Amino acid sequence: MLSYTGTWNGEQISVMGTGMGIPSHALYVWELINFFGVKKLIRIGSIGSLQHDVKLYDLVIAQAVSTDSNFLAQYDMPGTFTPVGSFNLIRRAIDAAEKLGATVHVGSVVSSDIYYHANSEADGKWAKMGMLGIEMETLGLYATAMEAGADALGLFTVSDHILTGEETTVEERQHSFGQMVETALNTLIY
Q1: How far is the C-alpha of 181 from the C-alpha of 107, rounded, in Å?
Q2: Each residue of 6-43: pLDDT tens digit?
Q3: Which residues are known catalytic residues?
Q4: What phi and psi values does residue 56 have, to the nearest 5 degrees?
């Protein structure tokens, strides 16, 4: 997997791809934490909005994550386990996003194993429960980081709106994720 290390405002930051989906993402997160001693991880990427007030290009910060995945079964918990993001990183990300003038929403998201869902009612059910959006990796990040005692954050730019059918083009995504990237970088060096 490609990774790069550079500096942002004089601080060393590493950036790495993680593939698509919970298993791929969680594998890289586990190795970053356990082999390289990484203590702060931020996933950035796109998210599909599930709420009418969460618009294209808005930022979404995942406070907690729900899923249709079986990933959490490995922990054999005696009840329902809800992976959450690091409050410290969430607070820093909100401050960093607001300083950039971004429209930011904080709340629960869905990490799904299914991109093209055969059940046409699934997204509506998640929306009814207040999920801000749907993506495919954050559950693995949060659960893996929580188990290891690391700080983790899911930070997204809304690239499409599941309820209205609005979507950004490839070109728009290439040029409109700057606030998210800058928010992530500023969150890490805050």
Answers
A1: 19
A2: 999 999 999 999 989 999 999 999 999 999 999 999 99
A3: 160
A4: -55, 140
